[in-house]
Amino acid sequence: MSGDAQKPSVIIFGGLNTCSRALASLFVPLEGERLVSHLRIVDKFSVSPPTTCLYRSRIPKILAEPDVEYRQTNLTVPSAVASTFDPPAGKAPYSYVFDLTGEVNHDRGEVIAIKMTFTVARIIALEAAKRNVKAYVRLQQPMYESSDKGTHDEKEDVKPIRPLDVWWHETLRMLASIDGLNLVILRCGFVYGPYVEFGLYALVITVASVYGYMKKPMKTIWGPGKEPVHTVHVEDVAGALFACAEWMRLHGRQEANSIAGEKIPFHNDKSKVKEVEGTCSPDDQPIAPIFNLVDDSDTTLAKGGSMITEYFGTTFEFYSNFETTLAKLDDLVEEINEHHVGTWTEMLQSSNPPTLHTPLNAYMDKYALSRHKLAYNNGRIKNVVGYQLKRPLFNHETLKEVVEKWKEEGTWPRLDG
């Protein structure tokens, strides 16, 4: 126990439906040495009974470990958040805070995006600064669009496009402007991996399996598919989050800014930010250390789509003669989904045993069917933080691991006898 006392005490806020399960598994592995002295996970979800995203996952087992606890909390209430920073009796104050909060569903309105992303992060960060935590690491989901030319390092101004994207970006500006906050921003690509049921790739994997089951090609309207859609394994998200916290502990904010700080430009509507408490001036360009995190696959739409569909025994092809305007896309959403959504339900029912509970679905909404372009350079986190990727390539081996884990937890149909 004396060794554990020297390890950091950690809070994870949010992300049970995204990446917190992988981070908790890193900190408190069911086999092997733990990395933390105490772990508290704080989110809005119920874990007893579990919500669908936690069904048969590892989280209940991790929460049963000593010095691990979960608090179901309304993160929009400052007093409730403040109380989560109070350590258990006899325990040291929390030294690392991992902020994985934020709305990830693009079909929610802008008011929800502001409340559940910007406001929640501000409440947590202000309390973290008051408590003088040694590291506050913010995970920035892939809420940007890059240009067609090469990969982009942290100095380049990638653009948020949709309302949700804009408020995720505005959240970074707000966090960077908080005095005394030992902030590090980890800007990741499209996440995939075991127990990752959210995001673009979980959906694409699910839909590709349907077309493999039907023995038909999976098609997209975005030919020829050269757009980059860079990926990252959830284990590397977890590993890089911890590495960034350790790096910040060694340097502190001022030195960290001098090493890896970047200006965060304004990309919002000036009239809107005036109405939201805590936003900084559109003329300000606050500075914070930023690190990109993607694997080494250089995944494109065509490359990723072909690899995934090949795994399920089918092909990835392109529709012809489609106008790729948003108006046209609106008309196509239901038509495209008609080809596969019903079959996914059939697969779940035909499973042996039947798959009764799953957060996975095959409905591709307007966001999923839109064109995506995201190409990050991952050199800085390797060279400055010293982080080495655990899963550098997105391939059949890593894809098989994902599907087998879903089968193991009972959220993926077993159709192989």
Radius of gyration over alpha carbons? 21 Å
How many DSSP helices? 15
| N-to-C span | 47 Å
Please tell me the overall pLDDT. 93
Number of strands: 12
Strand order of the largest sheet: 3-2-1-4-5-6-11-10
Strand content: 5-15%
List unreliable stretches of 5+ residues: 323-327
Q: What is the global morphology?
A: globular
Percentage of helical residues?
25-40%
- Order of H and E elements: HEHEHEHEHEHEEHEEHEHEHEHHHHH
- Helix-and-strand structural type: alpha/beta
Q: What summary fits the major beta sheet?
A: 8 strands, mixed
List keywords for this structure.
single chain; two-stranded parallel ribbon; 13% strand; 15 helices; 417 residues; 12 strands; alpha/beta
Tell me what you see in this structure:
The structure is a single chain. This protein has 417 residues and is an alpha/beta fold. Helix content is 40%, strand content 13%. It has helices at residues 2-5, 20-27, 59-63, 78-84, 110-131, 163-176, 199-214, 234-260, 270-273, 301-311, 326-337, 341-350, 366-369, 379-385, 396-409; strands spanning 9-13, 38-43, 68-72, 96-99, 135-140, 183-188, 190-192, 218-220, 231-233, 261-263, 287-293, 316-318. The strands form three sheets. The protein has an eight-stranded mixed β-sheet with strand order 3-2-1-4-5-6-11-10, sandwiched between helices. The chain has a two-stranded parallel ribbon with strand order 7-9. Strands 8-12 form a two-stranded parallel sheet. The chain starts with a helix and ends in an 8-residue tail after the last helix. The model is unreliable at 323-327 (pLDDT under 50).
